[in-house]
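Please fill in the sequence for the structure shown.

STRUCTURE ENCODING:
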C-alpha cells in the first residue's frame, strides 16, 4: 500500500499543471491511468492476496538422545531433533553388500536332422546378477533363492573389488532365501542385524545393492507398510514348499539387480533382504518388498546349522476380525484374527485353543492378519512353546501351544539354538 500512496500524491501535482490544455490532459490522463493500472497490478501480484504456491517441506527428523545414539521407541530420555544420517548408515552397510554373478549352462536346440547326423551344439552359458549380504566374517552370505536358482557357477564381488567363488550352503524357496559361503583368509566385512519386529511405518531406510550391474548403489526411502502378502511365491506341496510372505514394503528405489541386497535402518543395521518390486514395466515404480530380518536370521541360522530349515507350524486357520465378528463375540475393539479351523494332530489340536477364539497376540507380538501370524511362527522351531493371548466369551485368556512340524512331529533342535531367534552375532 505504501507504493500506491506515493503514486496518488504525484497524480495530484501533475493534474494542477495540465488542466488548461484538455487535449494534452486527455493524453496524459490515459498515460497515467495505464501507469496506475500497471502499478496496482504490480502491487497486487507482489503484496496482495495470492494463491499459495507449493512449499518445500523439510525432511522428517529422527529423534536422538544427547549421546547421539538413536533410541528405541520407548526411550524417555531428553531428545533433540536431528536429520537421519544416511552417510553413517551407508558406511556401516555398503561394504557388507556384495555383487552376485551367476552362470547357468543351457543346451542349445538344433535341427533334429543335424542331431541324427551326430552334430552336437556346445552348451551356452546364461549369465545373471543380483546382490547378497555378508552376515558373518567367516564368509556366510544371504541372498535370494531366485538369484542363485539352478546356477552352475556363482561368483561374488566385494565392494573392495575382491572376487570369490561361492558355494551354496542351503536354500529355502518358501521364503525365497539362500545362504552362500566364500572362503577368505581374512575376516570379511559383515552386517549387523536389527529386529524387524520393532520397525515402524514411516521410518527412514536405505536399500543397498547392485541394480543394473551398478555396484554399491544406495537409495533412500521410508517403510511404507509391513506384513504385506503379494502372492509372489508359488506353492509346491509336492516339494514341501509352502510360501511364507510377510514383506516389508518400502518406497526406496529398487530395480533388477537389487534382489538379495540389504534394506537397512539409519544405523546401518539389516532389517530386510530386498526381494521384489511391483511394476508394470519391470523397473521401479514406487513399490519394493523385503523379507524381514526376523525371518532372514531364522532361515539363515537353520541353513548354516542343518542345511535345511526346521519350520514350525501352529495348526490353525484364521480370518481377520470384522465389525460383524466383533459384535457377535462381544468384543470391545475390532482387532485380532478369529480361528476358523484347527488342524488335526497339530500343536493347536493338542492345546486348549478353540474354534471362534480370537488370537490377539503370540508371545507378545500382536496378530491382525495371516502374514503376521506366519512371520511370528516362522521364528520358532518344532518343539518350541508359545503363549497365545485369545479373546473368548468376553474375556482374555492365555493358552500355551507346543509347536510341531508340518507332519505333526516334535522335532527337537540343538540346545545352542534359542527358543526365539537371537540377533546373529557377526563372528
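FILLED IN BY: designer on duty
SEQUENCE:
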Amino acid at each position: 500500500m505504501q507504493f500506491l500512496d506515493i503514486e496518488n500524491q504525484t497524480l495530484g501535482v501533475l493534474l494542477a499543471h495540465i488542466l488548461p490544455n484538455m487535449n494534452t490532459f486527455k493524453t496524459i490522463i490515459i498515460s497515467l491511468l495505464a501507469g496506475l493500472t500497471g502499478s496496482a497490478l504490480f502491487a497486487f501480484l507482489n503484496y496482495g492476496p495470492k494463491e499459495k504456491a507449493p512449499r518445500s517441506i523439510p525432511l522428517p527428523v529422527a529423534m536422538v538422545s544427547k549421546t547421539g545414539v538413536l533410541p528405541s521407541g520407548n526411550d524417555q530420555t531428553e531428545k533433540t531433533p536431528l536429520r537421519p544420517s544416511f552417510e553413517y548408515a551407508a558406511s556401516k552397510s555398503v561394504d557388507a553388500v556384495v555383487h552376485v554373478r551367476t552362470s547357468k549352462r543351457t543346451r542349445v536346440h538344433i535341427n533334429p536332422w543335424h542331431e541324427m547326423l551326430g552334430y552336437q551344439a556346445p552348451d551356452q552359458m546364461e549369465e545373471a546378477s543380483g546382490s547378497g549380504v555378508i552376515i558373518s566374517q567367516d564368509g556366510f552370505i544371504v541372498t535370494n533363492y531366485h538369484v542363485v536358482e539352478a546356477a552352475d557357477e556363482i561368483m561374488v564381488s566385494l565392494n573392495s573389488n575382491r572376487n570369490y567363488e561361492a558355494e551354496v550352503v542351503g536354500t529355502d524357496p518358501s521364503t525365497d532365501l539362500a545362504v552362500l559361503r566364500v572362503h577368505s583368509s581374512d575376516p570379511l566385512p559383515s552386517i549387523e542385524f536389527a529386529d524387524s519386529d520393532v520397525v515402524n511405518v514411516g521410518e527412514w531406510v536405505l536399500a543397498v545393492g547392485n541394480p543394473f550391474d551398478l555396484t554399491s548403489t544406495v537409495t533412500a526411502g521410508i517403510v511404507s507398510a509391513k506384513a504385506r502378502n503379494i502372492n509372489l511365491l508359488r506353492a509346491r506341496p509336492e516339494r514341501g514348499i509352502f510360501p511364507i510372505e510377510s514383506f516389508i514394503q518400502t518406497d526406496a528405489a529398487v530395480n533388477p539387480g537389487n534382489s538379495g541386497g540389504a534394506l537397512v535402518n539409519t544405523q546401518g543395521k539389516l532389517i530386510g533382504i530386498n526381494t521384489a518390486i511391483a511394476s508394470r514395466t519391470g523397473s521401479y515404480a514406487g513399490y519394493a518388498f523385503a523379507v524381514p530380518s526376523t525371518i532372514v536370521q531364522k532361515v539363515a541360522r537353520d541353513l548354516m546349522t542343518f542345511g535345511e530349515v526346521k519350520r514350525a507350524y501352529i495348526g490353525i486357520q484364521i480370518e481377520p476380525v470384522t465389525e460383524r465378528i466383533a459384535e457377535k463375540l462381544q468384543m470391545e475393539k475390532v482387532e485380532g484374527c478369529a480361528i476358523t479351523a484347527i488342524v488335526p494332530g497339530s500343536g493347536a489340536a493338542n492345546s486348549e485353543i478353540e474354534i471362534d477364539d480370537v488370537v490377539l497376540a503370540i508371545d507378545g507380538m500382536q496378530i491382525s492378519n495371516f502374514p503376521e501370524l506366519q512371520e511370528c511362527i516362522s521364528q520358532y522351531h518344532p518343539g518350541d512353546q508359545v503363549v497365545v493371548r485369545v479373546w473368548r466369551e468376553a474375556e482374555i485368556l492365555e493358552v500355551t501351544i507346543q509347536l510341531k512340524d508340518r507332519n505333526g512331529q516334535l522335532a527337537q533342535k540343538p540346545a545352542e539354538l534359542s527358543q526365539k531367534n537371537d540377533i546373529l552375532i557377526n563372528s
